[in-house]
Amino acid sequence: xxxxxxxxxxxxxxxxxxxxxxxxxxxxxxxxxxxxxxxxxxxxxxxxxxxxxxxxxxxxxxxxxxxxxxxxxxxxxxxxxxxxxxxxxxxxxxxxxxxxxxxxxxxxxxxxxxxxxxxxxxxxxxxxxxxxxxxxxxxxxxxxxxxxxxxxxxxxxxxxxxxxxxxxxxxxxxxxxxxxxxxxxxxxxxxxxxxxxxxxxxxxxxxxxxxxxxxxxxxxxxxxxxxxxxxxxxxxxxxxxxxxxxxxxxxxxxxxxxxxxxxxxxxxxxxxxxxxxxxxxxxxxxxxxxxxxxxxxxxxxxxxxxxxxxxxxxxxxxxxxxxxxxxxxxxxxxxxxxxxxxxxxxxxxxxxxxxxxxxxxxxxxxxxxxxxxxxxxxxxxxxxxxxxxxxxxxxxxxxxxxxxxxxxxxxxxxxxxxxxxxxxxxxxxxxxxxxxxxxxxxxxxxxxxxxxxxxxxxxxxxxxxxxxxxxxxxxxxxxxxxxxxxxxxxxxxxxxxxxxxxxxxxxxxxxxxxxxxxxxxxxxxxxxxxxxxxxxxxxxxxxxxxxxxxxxxxxxxxxxxxxxxxxxxxxxxxxxxxxxxxxxxxxxxxxxxxxxxxxxxxxxxxxxxxxxxxxxxxxxxxxxxxxxxxxxxxxxxxxxxxxxxxxxxxxxxxxxxxxxxxxxxxxxxxxxxxxxxxxxxxxxxxxxxxxxxxxxxx
Length: 698
Fold this sequence. Notes:
There is one protein chain. The chain contains 9 helices and 43 strands. The protein is elongated and about 115 Å long. A hairpin with a 3-residue loop joins strand 14 and strand 15. Strands 13, 14, 15, 16, 17, 18 and 19 form a 7-stranded mixed β-sheet that branches. It has a 5-stranded mixed β-sheet with strand order 27-34-33-29-30, with no helix packed on it. A 5-stranded mixed β-sheet has the order 36-43-42-38-39, with no helix packed on it. By secondary structure, it is α+β, with helices and mostly antiparallel strands. The longest helix is centred in the C-terminal third of the chain and has 20 residues, at 461-480.
């Protein structure tokens, strides 16, 4: 279930202390840093026994972007830099289905050679199955999109007029059971518009100012990737272009006082300038941006920042203030340079860097283990080409829809432009009109579609819309600060559509708990704890028995998060062997939804073995007798008894290496021979006993 982030942490800790085997998935690291500033997700799973195994299933959804008619997919498998990870058995199944025709499919990873079972213009299915696989690289695939699919507007819809009611723990106070809105997705692959074959005016030479972050946060793979990106960018320049290089941490230092021609000699000098520098200090991104802005005096100027955005120095370290101050300076500048960002690292401050790139620029983000070439090629394509301008989608009449969100901030020729929205009620003959200005002329596409009362073919659209809405709210928070209304809506949408945000976490706990887990054959009691939404429980036993459990209201835990207790007695055949058995539970909630969970219990009929260890067999009245005992591992309690003396519980003693306890011989105990007994009781309440004789002296 999705819960508010802090509440999920509290319940996780409570469940962990009760050995309920919870799991927690949250955005961000577990070091207290702002989860909104990271692309990292952290999972906590307990318990994992020593040398044991825990099965973890993760499902995630990702939009695949298209750049210059190229598309790709990456599955992160390689561990963090300088670490190793190996799988005894690794199976990978790759299924690719595309509405547009595909060509030139390539698998970049050599460690996972796939066997292709199906391949045509729209579908690819391939498998890899290996033993003792070292994850030395991520799995990556890329392919090209057929250009003939360009400049066609497609609209898909989803509306379920009979949505399932949310579970009680997922409903907000304002939740209603009204019919859910409908959702739509409008998409088009923007063609290159190469209709005008007449030669255009000569290209204006570029003036590129590179900001290279050499603060301490840029160690290891961040530094290597930034340097590779800088070198490839420099070598893409022509002698007619100009450039300068600005190193920054908490201070700034420039390669040259002013931009210079991009000759082979100056490019090599800039590379040597970087190699001679040292990582040091914190990061003042605001100072660096202002220094770069001052270098942008020539026409066709642009700024390229290579950084993780971890700004912790300067007049302010608040991301939205850094972005706002730079935007103000940028608007007052003469050239309004395109401000592009190549973000590096898993912990890159993406909200801040996205705001910086909104000054007529683009942002590309590369993870720590991700292959660099594809991201860098995409980035260089975007910063050397202009995006499609005046791109917008009009839906009419406007009253037929509720909201409309573009899924990408900048669209280029050879990319897919997408909008997602919702509509409150069915509507006929709704107009979708797309307009854009691109090289070679304008692009106008029109389509008329019905927004249906029921359409169940694209169930991913509600979540896609909710994520777009949440992203808009997160941008609003990054720009203007937090508001209670925005946070409440983020939490509500996250819980309803089941995805994690900086304000919510996914808590995985079983809906039922089986107690006890170890029982004796005969006529035992089975108890099941469930969450408060469950109204009935049926148990299906492995020896052909089906039992309905009875609710025990007086034993329910108090409070809104308390569980419910169910109980039944069942007859376990006496000839059933000791061992672990499964029982299937069928749980039904107040809205009639059913859940199936499999639990295990252990049948144990063998009493524990006990061995008494005494240092002597004769004791005087008033003396302390040290009683030691050894018992099988299933033993829960050990108790020593002697006629006329108080019973003594024996507890594990690390120094003695056994369970032990001190028993005082009563002063008035008559001399003679007595029987000392030690009783062991295991978790299933089986009892084992050993006796020995001791002599009591005056």
